[in-house]
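Dear support,

We are seeing what looks like truncated structure output for some complexes. This example has two components. We would appreciate it if you could run it in full and send us the complete token output so we can diff it against ours.
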Amino acid sequence: MNKSPFRIAIAGLGTVGGGVVKALTARGEELSRRAGRELKLVSVSARDPRKARGYALTGWTADPLELARGEADVVVELIGGDEGIARDLVTLALKNGKHVVTANKALLARHGTELAELAESRGVTLKFEAAAAGGIPILKALREGLIAQPIEAVKGILNGTCNYILTEMESSGRSFAAVLKEAQARGYAEADPTLDVGGGDTAHKLALLSSLAFGTRPDLDSISVEGIEHITPDDIAYAREFGFRIKLLGVTRRVGEGIEQKVHPSMVRQRSPLANVDGAQNGVMVDAGAAGSFFFSGRGAGETPTASAVIADIVEAASETPSPVFGRPARSLTRLVPADAKAAVSPWYLRFEVLDVPGVLALIAGHLAEAGVSIESMIQRGRDPGEPVAIVMITHETAQANVERALKAIAASDKVRSRPCMIPMEAA
Amino acid sequence: MNKSPFRIAIAGLGTVGGGVVKALTARGEELSRRAGRELKLVSVSARDPRKARGYALTGWTADPLELARGEADVVVELIGGDEGIARDLVTLALKNGKHVVTANKALLARHGTELAELAESRGVTLKFEAAAAGGIPILKALREGLIAQPIEAVKGILNGTCNYILTEMESSGRSFAAVLKEAQARGYAEADPTLDVGGGDTAHKLALLSSLAFGTRPDLDSISVEGIEHITPDDIAYAREFGFRIKLLGVTRRVGEGIEQKVHPSMVRQRSPLANVDGAQNGVMVDAGAAGSFFFSGRGAGETPTASAVIADIVEAASETPSPVFGRPARSLTRLVPADAKAAVSPWYLRFEVLDVPGVLALIAGHLAEAGVSIESMIQRGRDPGEPVAIVMITHETAQANVERALKAIAASDKVRSRPCMIPMEAA
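Here is the complete output from our reference environment:
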């Protein structure tokens, strides 16, 4: 190692930033050996320099932008947010010819193409392994590993909070609201959980996986997003009866000439690898066409897994020739042509809450038939006097548009209570 | 792309070599864009130039060593074998300052340290992603991804033939010999299956995973190896009754100051990811300590997955600065200190075939107690008159040495038919 030290600046010393500092301290020698040069933390930026963190602050500055102007070779951005200081910092650092490592999925999902072009024009590295699926090196696998065959689809459980909530709902039979409240109390869910449970966080990550898989510019806006707020313990119990589990999936796949991107609760077969991703874990299935399907799982968030992904990126930035940010030169990334998600065909799980009066099943069956939706199996039960009755069905393969048309007509009847629930069933 | 073309020579045009040529032809432009320079196949070596292959032979030569002397920037070695022509070719190519990509696990397991030192001294790349778990980018994950925390253990289903045979035995109830014969007829197993079913192929791959995980020199000789030849349909059925499945695992893990490496049939819990790796698939579980456990699965062999791994290596060789072959400089790899495998503690599955005479259970229980092995649960059944009776047990956690001591004493009795069967139960 006769190269000069690789100087590191870190902006943001929350959970992940702290984990990075601790790993650099505890394992600096080993990591330097891997990098082929000394890894040297030269400056950090955090709001409160007096906060007790259990480690010393090297070269503290209040202004993160200072890090982009200083001596560092790489700026590690762990502030978060798709605009404001995080965007300014990353842009300035790249402009100043510094490598950037970030865990910021929102920033990359919104401005990935522009930032990649900037990095490539300056001949520096922009890395973001920690931005999706935390400790699982899935971005690396898509960027560098599974490149010889065209990818057909990527499906992932990408949000640990949602998966924790669904797992707890299944094991305890409690409602979404009750489990969410407990998760918040235990620090597993944010005070404002919207970004997680509403599917937005999964969408950010999916936009990055899409880009790496298909060579398209990250395109957050064309992702159709549905969260898990409306999933009931009954849905989960019925799913189990049919041999399925309910997971919030981010799915991106080729459909004809376009790419379908969506985030939504899905039924997955109990024996499938995705169904067995429990608690706060993440899991990703990649359909690599002729090369077959590949599955990756592990911890997707938390201090150590996420910090580990950041560390791996720092080591690569120190040792590698900069390579295209999204695997292909940013200028060659194509505009994503969204496929018509409503045309996508799958079997569907449908649940109706109906009044127990004559003719209601005929009404439902009639509207489904009219829309061309045929029923594969059905469960009806729960006839406490005065209580609404649940009618649950699995359909044969049919387009989303057909199901929606039928459900709209059915929901208009005064015999049907609340909005019917529809969940697609994933093949794998 | 104003760099010069990256010139590729391929030695060995079997299944994998053919797949590489086809992918380079079909997707040359896309792959060149990823590599940042044109990928150009300039020469190949194969025994018979007249064989119908479905693609043209570019720059054919009969002598593979010619490739190491020619104009190529990278030599792709797909001949196989740990000595002879493959070793000579790789050595000469590295000596001549050419990058090398190989799928040769035996060569790397035996001579990895020496070849890595040679590559690093010449400033060239030596890559071997295809050497273990085919299409799954597990070597890359260990080498570049999961590096921030010390790895505690790696456990893998690394041989598709064994996993196919065990899966078929389970689903059909047929014997090892019958399923092997069918697998051979269908081309899923070699005419001489010893290297696969005896565990040797898994050991080669395990030696490479060990080195990457622990920074040790590949050490094939300290791996204890046991194959699947003695597994019976009864063992598989009993395993299922206890909630387990039988898999041939390669396991490497820290035990005290040493590293335990072994290849052996194992009981894995039905719900664990490894238990659900079916047919010819491969699966690898990495225990990354504080970062948690990570699981990877997919096709481990066959033309397209293996060729895909070779292609990914070629693209990296074309675009990257050469980096240490085993993740750390070869000179810094330490000698592996083997842990005492017999001291390793786990619960055990034991099966005895005994004569149905008074006192036989007392005899077995007595010897187990004497060796300090205590029994957690037991099944006894199958009392057709004159037939031997199977006694099957799960023990509490105990060292292998204790179980072996008890079984030796038990096997000496004339009431016990055939060699007792012992299979460790994996925690994860």
